[in-house]
# Entry
Amino acid sequence: MHTASMASSPDPPADGESPSLTWQYVETLEVTEIVLAILQAQRTMPWATAATVSREKHGDVFHVRVTMLKSSPSAPADHRERPADPSSGSEVIAAFAVRRLGDDLAIAFGDGDVITLK
# Structure
């Protein structure tokens, strides 16, 4: 892993975000951190049947969210409109603010901004 973990802190919520969302600041985000977050969440979220990983570019920083879903989305989702709410069938389990995506994660995203794992 090539991450340099920085202090986590809550940022002011953007429109449609959960006010309790805590961003984990890392220099480089790798696929392994995403997989570990999903595996840990599966223990307490047996209702989840899929996960999405979404990215948004904010200046020279990426915001990457990992969301557990009750069912697979039929169309690409806009995760800015999906706050952490298990009653709605989705919950954001990890939020990263990163300077650089690891090569494996950048390849996985390709030209898209959402990865769906079923």
Observations:
- Residues 9-117 form one domain.
- Strands lie at 9-10, 22-29, 50-58, 61-69, 90-101, 114-117.
- The first helix runs from residue 31 to 44.
